[in-house]
Design brief:
415 residues; four-stranded antiparallel sheet; alpha+beta; 12 helices
Length: 415
């Protein structure tokens, strides 16, 4: 009986104990690989935030540019210098640093740490050329290629942020690496953008000065051509203008002749007109009414013809003015549009330069805390107890603890 009870207790406790042990083992295994994570946020200009489509396009473009720039050799080289300087001067010496001190001496490493730190602070992205420095960085695991292989720069979908991650067994050191990387990159990005935009600004200012000079020259040429055309017209050197003056004189004469005819016709009708028909004298009597009517029609026809010719010459004169002045006017308009375009680009570059100083911020820093070992025991206890209850319910429902009932056979009665 006691033996059967022991078997039941062992069966009851074996599964929960195994689950608890497995949970603790898995927790201990993954506890060795902690993740240090920090985030860099992109400040989006107010002019871009007004439109959702423009906002998404701007964020996607900037995030892609920043991720590409972060994975470039220059920022990782700065990180290599910075973390190497910190590790060599930190009191929390690792086994690698102790081995380097035993091999090269603490004074040499201290001098090397000063050089590394100075390069990081001055944003000197030149790669290492000294063989001893290369060997030290390699032994520490801080060569740019080694760091780049372990760092992960990840885009956060739908947000103007990038995530920087580093996994390893030393949460304190890896949090230091991630935070240093983010800080150095933000400074590096700001300096690079300011240098680039300042160069663009200087180039645009020079181009604007050149375009302004071209615009002034074109406007001066336009004024010269306009003045020359107007002077030639006033001095009678324009053939079209001379023809127009001649036709105007002919029309005036014809209008006077027309009024003479009308005055003669009124005289024929016995009316007294204010106009004196000087063309008709005793030697040249006034024609009869039929002749006057014919002369009136011919005069009106000549006036209409001369008026049409004057209109045609005016149109031709306008076309001549356009043909003379328009090419220079188009050059002036083109130069003015180019000047305005450069002015807009200059304003946008100035805004971008101002924005570059605050475009990136470290929105979330990596933490150096690692999970407590007690968390493994607590998790193992919780999973063990939960599995114990489930296992107990399963055994009870399957009558595992019920005592067996024995059926005794009865002997038949002999009559």
């Amino acid at each position: 009986m006691i033996r059967k009870t022991g078997i039941k207790i062992a069966a009851l406790l074996t599964l929960p104990a195994g689950v608890a042990a497995l949970t603790f083992a898995l927790f201990s295994f993954f506890q060795d690989e902690s993740t240090a994570e920090a985030r860099i946020r992109i400040n989006v200009p107010d002019t871009v935030q007004d439109s959702a489509q423009v906002h998404d396009s701007y964020v996607r473009q900037r995030v892609q540019h920043i991720m590409s720039e972060m994975q470039a050799p220059a920022p990782v080289q700065l990180l290599s210098y910075a973390v190497a300087a910190h590790t060599l001067t930190s009191r929390r010496h690792s086994a690698a640093v102790q081995a380097l001190e035993a091999q090269h001496g603490s004074a040499l490493l201290a001098d090397m740490a000063v050089r590394f730190g100075a390069r990081a602070e001055t944003l000197d992205t030149a790669p290492v050329t000294d063989s001893l420095e290369t060997a030290v960085l390699q032994q520490l695991g801080y060569l740019p290629a080694q760091l780049a292989a372990r760092l992960a720069v990840i885009r956060i979908p739908g947000m103007p942020e990038v995530r920087v991650q580093l996994q390893g067994q030393d949460p304190h050191q890896y949090a230091l690496i991630v935070n240093t990387y983010c800080r150095l990159y933000v400074t590096y990005h700001q300096v690079v953008e300011e240098e680039r935009l300042s160069a663009d600004l200087l180039m645009l200012e020079q181009l604007m000065a050149q375009k302004k000079k071209e615009l002034d020259e074109k406007a001066h040429q336009l004024r010269i051509r306009q003045d020359a055309y107007e002077a030639a017209t006033r001095m009678g050197q324009n053939p079209l203008y001379q023809k127009m003056l001649t036709l105007e004189k002919i029309r005036e004469d014809e209008l006077m002749h027309l009024e003479t005819i009308r005055s003669a016709m009124r005289m024929r009708r016995g009316q007294t007109g204010q106009f004196v028909a000087v063309r008709y004298t005793a030697d040249s009597p006034v024609p009869d009414t039929a002749d006057l009517a014919a002369q009136l029609g011919a005069s009106l026809a000549r006036i209409a013809f001369v008026s049409r010719e004057i209109e045609r010459l005016e149109e031709a004169r306008e076309n001549q003015a356009i043909a003379t002045i328009q090419p220079v006017q188009q050059e002036v308009n083109q130069a003015y549009r180019a000047y305005l375009s450069l002015q807009d680009r200059l304003k946008q570059t100035e805004q971008a330069l101002e924005m570059a100083r605050t475009e990136l911020i470290v929105s979330s820093k990596a933490s150096s805390r690692s999970p407590s070992p007690l968390a493994g025991y607590l998790m193992a206890a919780m999973t063990g107890f939960s599995s114990f209850l489930l296992w107990l319910v399963f055994l009870v429902r399957n009558n595992f603890f019920q005592r067996p009932t024995h059926a005794y056979a009865t002997r038949p009665q002999i009559a």
